[in-house]
Write a structure and sequence with these properties.
Length: about 750
C-alpha cells in the first residue's frame, strides 16, 4: 500500500505536460529523469566530471562564461516553459471543444455513426489503451502472482517468442510413422493428386517454355463459380469439369480428415444438400475441386458477410491435407531408411525441400490467424475424447484473441465493416505452426514449421530490405502452397509489402540450415520450386494490381484458373437519393500517364466549375493518398477555402473538419478512401460530390452518395455528382454502372449523364 501511495503522490506532483508526455511515450521527459540527465550532461560536458583534470577548473573566465551559456542552452531545450504549457492547454481545450461539437452533431436526429462520448471508434481505442497500459507499467503497478504478461499484447513483447522446448518432439528427421496410424502407405496411390503434382519431373525445355512462351487459355462455365478462365503454358490440359456430387473418399484426403471434415463443415450445410454430398457446400465443392488439382486459383468474389468463412474452411482443409501427406511421406521414409540395407540407393527417399515450411498463409489481421488455427485444430481432432496436444495454446489465445469489452456498445457501422474488423485487428504478426501426427506446435521457429501464418507487414519486417544486416527469407525457399486471403484489404494497408513478399519467395537459400541434401527433391535443388508452387488468391474485387500478381508472379506448371464474372448491375442501383450522375471521360495515352492527365483535367476543366460560392459543400473523394497530397498542396497554393481528412488525420482535426464542412465555413472537403475504409463515418452537409477517381470498392460509391440524405434541408434539387474516369478504369466502372453501360461509355468519348431516381 505504501508503494502505491508513493506512486499516487508522484502522479500528483507531475505537471499537466509531464502527465501528457508520460501517457504518450510511456516514460518521463529526459529533463525530469535525473539519472538520464546526468548521463546526458556528462556526455556533453566531460570537463564537468568529478574525475576530470583539475586544470580544467583553472580555465579562464571567458571559457567559463561560454560553458555556462552552452549549459543553459541545453537546459532550454529540456525545460518546460509556461508558454509551451499554455499552448498545450489550448490544444487540449480545442480538442475537447471539437469532441463536444462532434457529440452535438451526432445527436441531431439522423443516424450518425460518429465518435460521441462513449462511442469511440475502435481504431482509436487501442492507441489510448496502449498509452494507459504503458503508463501503468511505467509506474510499476503490481501484477497478479503467476501472471504471464509476455503473452499480453498490451504489455508489449520485447522479443519475438518462439517455442524451442518441443523441438525434438516435432522434428521430422528423428520421428517415425506410428504403426497404428495405418497411414504409412496412404500416399503411394498413383492417382493421389499430391503425389502426381510433386513427383512430376519437368525437363529444362519445359521450364524454358514456361518462361518465354505466352499462356494459352480456354473458357468454361461452372454452375456456382460462373465464368472460368483456364490458362497454361505446357501442353493443353483436359478441360476441368465441375463435379455435381463429391464423395469425400474420392478426394484422397489424409485419413483423419475424411472423418473430421464433415463435422467441422456442418455449420455451412443446409438441409437441402443431398446425402451423397453432405460434406461440401456448392461453392466449396467447386473451389476444392480446383484446389485439389494443384492449379493456381484466383477467386475475386469473396465476401466477409456471406462466403468468407466457407472459403477459409476450404483452403484450410487443402493446406492441412497437403502438410499431413508430405509429413507422412517423410516419416514413412525415415522408417524405410532405418531398416534399409547398407549400399541401397538413397535417391528413392527424396521427399523434402531445402527448408521445412510448405504452406504460407497471408491474412490481414490476427483474428484471421486465430480462426485458421482453430479450424486446423478441429480438423485434427477425430472426436471429443481424443483431443490433440497443442503447445502454447494459452499464449496464442492471449496474443491473438480479443476482449469483447474493448468494443464500445453503441458503435454503429455497416454489416460488412463489422465482419471485416471483427476481433483483434492488429496487422503486424507472424507465427509458425508445426504439425506432427497427433500434435500441433504453435510458435514453432520458422525453420521447424510446416505452416506459417502472417500478415504482409509481419513478413516485410522479417524479410527486411536490401542492405539491412538482420534479414531472413530463406524459410520461404520451399513453399509449395501460397494462400493470400482478403487481398483487397492489402490495397488499403500497403500493397508494396505483398510485392516485396512475392519477390523473395522460392529463392535459393543463402545457408543450408542443416538440411540433408540426400533427402531434397531435385526440383528444389534445380531452383524450380516456383514452377510447382500453387497460389490461391482470394479477394472481394477485381483490381489491376491483384491481377498483376496472379499473372506475373504465378508460374505453376499445372496452370491457372481465374473466375471472371462480369457485373450485370452496378452499385449505382443502390443509390437511394434522387441525384444526377455526370461521368466525365478523360483521355490518357498510357496507364502511367493517367495520374498526371487526371490531375490536369481536374484543375482545368472540373474545379473551375466549383469555385463559385454557390457550389459550396463540395466533397472530393480521392482513392489514392498520393493524389490527395497533390490536391491538398494545390489547394493551399491557390488559397482555396477547404479542409481535408485522411487516414492520418487526428481525431480532433477530423471533428473540426466535419463541423466546418457541415456549417459551410469550408467550401471543399478532401476525403480519402482509406479513411472511409477504416472509419466509415457519415459526412453531413454534402451538396456536391466529386469522385476524383472511381472507388476501389464499388459499394463505397453508393455509400458516399447516400450520405446526402443525412442532411435533409430541402435543397436536394441542387445536388450534383461528378465522376472522372478513363478507359483504363473499365473494371471499376463496370462494378459501378454495370457491364452494358460500361461498354457504351468506353465506345463513346462524350460525357455520360445518368439520373438515379432512388428506385433503380
Amino acid at each position: 500500500m505504501g508503494k502505491r501511495r508513493d506512486r499516487r503522490e508522484l502522479l500528483r506532483n507531475l505537471s499537466k505536460k509531464q502527465k501528457k508526455h508520460l501517457r504518450e511515450f510511456g516514460e518521463e521527459h529526459p529533463f525530469h529523469d535525473k539519472s538520464l540527465l546526468g548521463l546526458l550532461l556528462h556526455s556533453c560536458f566531460p570537463f564537468q566530471s568529478e574525475n576530470s583534470d583539475k586544470s580544467s577548473a583553472e580555465s579562464d573566465s571567458e571559457t567559463e562564461v561560454e560553458q555556462v551559456s552552452v549549459y543553459h542552452k541545453l537546459l532550454a531545450t529540456l525545460k518546460t516553459s509556461p508558454e509551451s504549457e499554455s499552448e498545450e492547454e489550448e490544444d487540449e481545450s480545442e480538442s475537447e471543444e471539437a469532441e463536444e461539437s462532434e457529440a452535438e452533431m451526432d445527436s441531431e436526429g439522423s443516424q450518425e455513426t460518429g465518435e460521441a462520448d462513449g462511442g469511440e471508434d475502435k481504431k482509436d481505442v487501442p492507441e489510448e489503451k496502449e498509452a494507459t497500459d504503458t503508463t501503468e507499467l511505467m509506474l510499476g503497478q503490481e501484477q497478479d502472482d503467476g501472471a504471464d504478461t509476455s503473452c499480453d499484447p498490451h504489455h508489449g513483447v520485447t522479443e519475438e517468442f518462439t517455442d524451442v522446448k518441443h523441438e525434438s518432439e516435432f522434428s521430422l528427421e528423428t520421428n517415425f510413422m506410428e504403426e497404428e496410424s495405418g497411414d504409412c502407405n496412404a500416399d503411394t496411390r498413383d492417382s493421389n493428386p499430391f503425389k502426381q503434382h510433386m513427383d512430376k519431373e519437368l525437363e529444362e525445355k519445359e521450364i524454358e517454355k514456361m518462361s518465354t512462351v505466352p499462356k494459352t487459355s480456354s473458357q468454361s462455365q461452372w454452375p456456382r463459380l460462373g465464368q472460368l478462365t483456364f490458362s497454361s503454358t505446357l501442353e493443353k490440359h483436359k478441360t476441368l469439369k465441375a463435379d455435381k456430387e463429391v464423395d469425400v473418399k474420392q478426394l484422397y484426403l489424409h485419413k483423419p480428415l475424411e472423418s473430421t471434415w464433415p463435422k467441422v463443415n456442418k455449420q455451412f450445410l443446409s438441409s437441402v444438400n443431398k446425402p451423397s454430398d453432405s460434406s461440401f457446400t456448392p461453392l466449396q465443392r467447386e473451389l476444392f475441386c480446383i484446389m485439389n488439382t494443384y492449379r493456381d486459383l484466383f477467386y475475386p468474389e469473396r465476401n466477409a458477410l456471406t462466403n468468407g468463412e466457407e472459403i477459409r474452411h476450404a483452403y484450410c482443409l487443402h493446406a492441412l491435407n497437403h502438410v499431413l501427406k508430405a509429413n507422412a511421406q517423410v516419416l514413412s521414409n525415415n522408417a524405410k531408411r532405418r531398416d534399409r540395407k547398407p549400399g541401397t540407393d538413397t535417391d528413392d527417399y527424396r521427399d523434402q525441400g531445402l527448408t521445412r515450411p510448405k504452406v504460407l498463409m497471408i491474412v490481414p489481421f490476427r483474428e484471421c490467424a486465430l480462426r485458421i488455427v482453430h479450424i486446423l485444430i478441429s480438423l485434427l481432432e477425430v472426436n471429443d475424447k481424443k483431443k490433440i496436444d497443442v503447445s502454447n495454446k494459452k499464449r496464442f489465445k492471449g496474443e491473438f484473441g480479443s476482449d469483447p469489452e474493448e468494443k464500445p456498445p453503441n458503435l454503429k457501422r455497416p454489416e460488412d465493416y463489422e465482419a471485416v474488423f471483427a476481433g483483434n485487428i492488429d496487422d503486424h504478426f507472424r507465427i509458425g505452426v508445426a504439425i506432427l501426427q497427433k500434435s500441433m506446435r504453435l510458435y514453432a521457429p520458422f525453420y521447424s514449421s510446416d505452416i506459417i501464418i502472417a500478415s504482409p507487414l509481419g513478413m516485410r519486417t522479417v524479410i527486411g530490405a536490401e542492405g539491412e544486416k538482420k534479414r531472413d527469407f530463406d524459410f520461404l525457399s520451399s513453399v509449395e502452397i501460397l494462400i493470400i486471403d482478403q487481398a483487397d484489404i492489402y490495397l488499403m494497408q500497403n500493397w508494396e509489402h505483398v510485392l516485396h513478399l512475392m519477390k523473395h519467395i522460392n529463392l535459393l537459400p543463402l545457408d543450408s540450415h542443416g538440411v540433408d541434401f540426400s533427402r531434397v527433391r531435385m526440383l528444389n535443388l534445380n531452383n524450380w520450386c516456383k514452377y510447382y508452387r500453387q497460389t490461391l488468391l482470394f479477394s472481394a474485387l477485381q483490381d489491376p494490381q491483384i491481377n498483376s500478381v496472379f499473372n506475373k508472379h504465378c508460374f505453376n506448371y499445372a496452370g491457372q484458373v481465374a473466375v471472371r464474372n462480369l457485373p450485370l448491375t452496378g452499385s449505382i442501383s443502390q443509390v437511394v437519393v434522387q441525384l444526377p450522375h455526370v461521368f466525365r471521360r478523360l483521355e490518357a495515352e498510357s496507364v502511367t500517364s493517367v495520374i498526371d492527365a487526371r490531375f490536369q483535367f481536374f484543375i482545368h476543366k472540373v474545379l473551375p466549375e466549383y469555385r463559385d460560392a454557390i457550389m459550396s459543400h463540395t466533397l472530393i473523394y480521392v482513392p489514392s493518398y498520393f493524389d490527395y497530397v497533390r490536391l491538398r498542396n494545390y489547394f493551399k497554393k491557390e488559397d482555396l477555402n477547404f479542409t481535408h481528412i485522411c487516414e492520418y488525420t487526428k481525431k480532433a482535426a477530423v471533428c473540426r473538419a466535419r463541423r466546418f464542412f457541415l456549417k459551410g465555413e469550408k467550401q471543399f472537403l478532401l476525403f480519402t478512401e482509406r479513411f472511409h475504409f477504416y472509419k466509415r463515418y457519415t459526412i453531413k452537409g454534402i451538396r456536391n460530390l466529386i469522385f476524383y477517381e472511381l472507388p476501389t470498392y464499388s459499394h463505397f460509391y453508393s455509400e458516399i452518395c447516400n450520405m446526402m440524405k443525412a442532411t435533409d434541408n430541402g435543397v436536394d434539387a441542387t445536388w450534383t455528382c461528378t465522376v472522372l474516369y478513363s478507359k483504363y478504369d473499365a473494371q471499376k466502372l463496370a462494378a459501378v454502372v454495370g457491364i452494358d453501360r460500361t461498354a457504351q461509355m468506353l465506345q463513346s468519348k462524350k460525357n455520360v449523364h445518368l439520373f438515379v431516381t432512388g428506385e433503380n
